[in-house]
Amino acid sequence: MAEKGKLIILSGPSGVGKSTIVFKAMQERSIFCFSTSVTTREPRPGEVHGREYFFIDQERFDEMVAADELLEYASYVNHSYGTPRSFVEEKLEEGMNVILDIEIQGARQVYEKIPEAITVFILPPSMETLRERLIKRGTDSRETIEARIRRACQEIEEADFYDYLIVNEDVETAAKEFNAIITAEYCRFDRTKALALREPDFNC
User: Fold this and answer.
1) Are strands 70-76 and 97-101 parallel, antiparallel or unpaired?
2) Which residues, listed in sequence order, are joined to residue 33 by a DSSP beta bridge?
3) What is the CATH number of domain 7-35+97-202?
4) Domain ranges for the chain
5) How distant is the alpha carbon of residue 57 from its chain centre?
6) The pTM is what?
């Protein structure tokens, strides 16, 4: 039977580069998967239903909440987001390490249910850099960008909830730091001790 996988909660302001960091980090690891969330927002150019998100309407979202089909859910800049419970639980049982890209409200919900989850927060080098990245992305109006900046300030104030912080000044460096965190978690004494006790060579 496969060892149960780890749940990694990843948060940070919109536009900080979370997805890019994780995709680069995952190139070096084969037992990781990105959980696909549901959202009520419209797809951005190039986004595909079932890949970046499952794009649904608010009525369907409310049905999933009522049926307890979401591990967590939250509202962000006038849209709803949530994590399908069944996907995460199935992948963890298969031994996969599941990454949740969620905001702080959702992260707290998941942590209450799964306190052994690893929590990582991604910071921009500065708020001005974050604003420039959002403008360069070209997917939001000026009004929406400023709303995201205000929300980012609120999120950063709560970042002390997380186990690890990464400043994404350079995506290659940030991806290496993310991988180092995962490596450190694999080397935690409580995990390695449990594995060693099952090996006959370590029986005294």
Assistant:
1) unpaired
2) 98
3) 3.40.50.300
4) 7-35+97-202
5) 22
6) 0.80
